[in-house]
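Example record for the data management plan.
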Amino acid sequence: MPILKIDFEDVAYTLDGPAGAPVVMLSNSLGTTMSMWERQAQFLQRQYRVLRYDTRGHGQSAVPAGRYTVQQLGNDVLQLLDALDIEKVNFCGISMAGMIGMWLGIHAPSRLEKLVIANSAARIGTAEGWHARAQLVLASGMDDVADGAAGRWFTPAFIAHAPDQVAQYVQSLRTCSPAGYAGCCQALADADLREGIAAIKTPTLLIVGRHDPVTTAADAHFMQSRIGNSRYAELLASHLSNIEASDAFNRLLQDFLT
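Corresponding structural encoding:
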């Protein structure tokens, strides 16, 4: 995959689809890579340019030292777009990347055509919880977090139906850089966009998994109450709804982006 150097740091990305078509940018969740979007990329690139990238600290992108902020993660997006000479995108982010999308909607609305926030919240978890998880992985590695990931990410029915697919994503988490993962945990610990999201004017789709224990329907309804030009959609899935309910997720994207 191509690698760009941005501020002397490597950013891994792929850009596929017909030249000149509108761009859809897909941003990964904590502990995953751009590969989580494979089914969306295959579906969308018939009609759109599809830009995927590995968030800093993940996949083939660099692992800068220290704690990160959502502002840094958002600026990474803007710098990647600038480097690729892309003025505007339809941005789709899931979980942590949903917060990146919210930050862009608040601080860089001119770069967005439409915004999809999937399985996310304006405030995810607690600062104490994220600090504790960061300390855990830095001290002990990724195994403890990876061992419990399947139950957070997928419903029991999907785990039973697609064990190989579930194992693939859990293994990817197990091999994630502890420093990169911890840096993003610190970003989530500090991120609270509940007051800011009322400034988002970009047309926004909020996708929630009905069985998501991490970011709930109540979180999505809160965002909908604050983001004026937004709509709500619910899938029969848990936290990684784009994987568990990929066909339904793709249909939502198609209908919203058209």
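Summary line stored alongside the record: The beta strands are 3-6, 9-16, 23-27, 49-53, 89-94, 112-118, 204-209, 230-235.
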